[in-house]
């Protein structure tokens, strides 16, 4: 679920243990896009941005021959411990040629900030007639979370761009990219999916946006407190349960046969 080569000041790092504790719901909620993929026995599938392999395992259990790629050393190590064929690779520079029946991705494409390069690499990796099936953040994803961080970053004199280093397109924008890359778009949908946060907004922020808070050094805790205070009226209910304002984009696209 990682990408490569962000700016040094905003580099996102991953811990499989922290991810498991704070954001396991990301892969748990991937069942819908796996249904769209409908992996078949013997199919060769590339899992792009496979993270710690939680969904990769499900594709293997369906009988597919699966290769996973991720740009995080920590995730690749965790996935390999599950016995998976997972390789350290930048999603912008996939090193495959006409090898796969399908390319699958869950909650990873929004971390890859050169989407045209990703689409081009996926097209090269697929056999003629192969399909690209994925789900990732769509336009307006985590809008409240991002806005609160940007407001606090501005007030504290920080780099506000580190608050939201993601690519969240509309369905029209991404459909155009897919078509420009040689794909036929069979189905695409953008939908809201309010998502409970098991360890609260603090756990989400620590996992997904630690670089934003780390830039404040000794004032790091102050930044967390300010962001949480700003978010609480809209994302936390009276019982203290936090919900993230997720919006997802899911699609099936296919190369001509």
TrEMBL record:
Superkingdom in the source lineage: Bacteria
List the Pfam families.
Answer: Methyltransf_11
Q: Which InterPro entries match?
A: Methyltransf_11, SAM-dependent_MTases_sf
In the record, biological process GO terms are: methylation
What keywords are assigned to this protein? Methyltransferase, Transferase, Ubiquinone
| GO terms assigned for molecular function | S-adenosylmethionine-dependent methyltransferase activity
Methyltransferase type domain residues: 46-133
Its protein name is Ubiquinone/menaquinone biosynthesis C-methylase UbiE
Q: Which organism is it from?
A: Faunimonas pinastri
């Amino acid at each position: 679920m990682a990408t490569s080569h962000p700016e040094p000041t905003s580099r996102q790092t991953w811990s499989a243990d922290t991810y498991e504790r704070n954001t396991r719901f990301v892969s748990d909620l991937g069942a819908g896009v796996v249904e769209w993929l409908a992996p078949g026995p013997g199919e060769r599938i590339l899992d792009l941005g496979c993270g710690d392999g939680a969904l990769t395992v499900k594709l293997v259990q369906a009988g597919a021959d699966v290769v996973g790629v991720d740009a995080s050393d920590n995730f690749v190590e965790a996935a390999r411990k599950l016995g998976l064929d997972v390789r350290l690779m930048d999603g912008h520079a996939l090193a495959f040629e006409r090898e796969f029946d399908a390319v699958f991705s869950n909650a990873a494409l929004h971390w890859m900030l050169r989407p045209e390069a990703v689409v081009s690499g996926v097209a090269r990796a697929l056999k003629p007639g192969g399909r690209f099936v994925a789900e990732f953040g769509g336009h307006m994803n985590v809008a409240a979370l991002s806005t609160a961080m940007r407001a606090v970053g501005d007030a504290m004199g920080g780099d506000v761009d580190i608050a939201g280093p993601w690519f969240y397109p509309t369905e029209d924008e991404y459909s155009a990219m897919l078509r420009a890359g040689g794909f036929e778009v069979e189905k695409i949908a953008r939908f809201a999916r309010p998502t409970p946060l098991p360890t609260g907004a603090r756990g989400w922020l620590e996992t997904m946006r630690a670089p934003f808070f780390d830039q404040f050094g000794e004032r790091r805790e102050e930044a967390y407190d300010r962001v949480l205070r700003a978010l609480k009226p809209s994302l936390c209910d009276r019982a203290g349960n936090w919900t993230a304002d997720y919006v997802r984009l899911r699609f099936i696209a296919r190369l001509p046969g």
